[in-house]
Write the structure tokens for this entry.
Amino acid sequence: MTPNDRKYSTTHEWVKVDGELAVVGISDHAQEALGDITFLELPKAGTSVEKGTECGVIESVKAASDIYSPIGGEIAEANDALENAPEQVNQSPYDTGWLFKVKGIDHAEIDALMSADDYETFLKEQE
């Protein structure tokens, strides 16, 4: 089930606003397609990111995939716990498997992303 409390990108990242920050992760669909995640390279705190730009890498037993920032801003925090437990992305992509938090967010960029229902439709169209 795709959570309704966040927005989704066409590159399978999600964004959830949490006060002044936006939490970013990958969707359940993305983690399932990747298979067992073995390594993550996440952006460092203080790094500026632009919407749609590559900002990290996820490696799995199947492939390596770029992580794209679905919004612009400054990285406030990366989920350092994933360094020693990358499987959290597989086990809990919408909770403990979040990737990074962004500050200085533009709510218009977030509003332009897909709702959960629109993302589900997008996935069906990709099949």
In short: Helices lie at 28-34, 87-91, 107-111, 116-126.
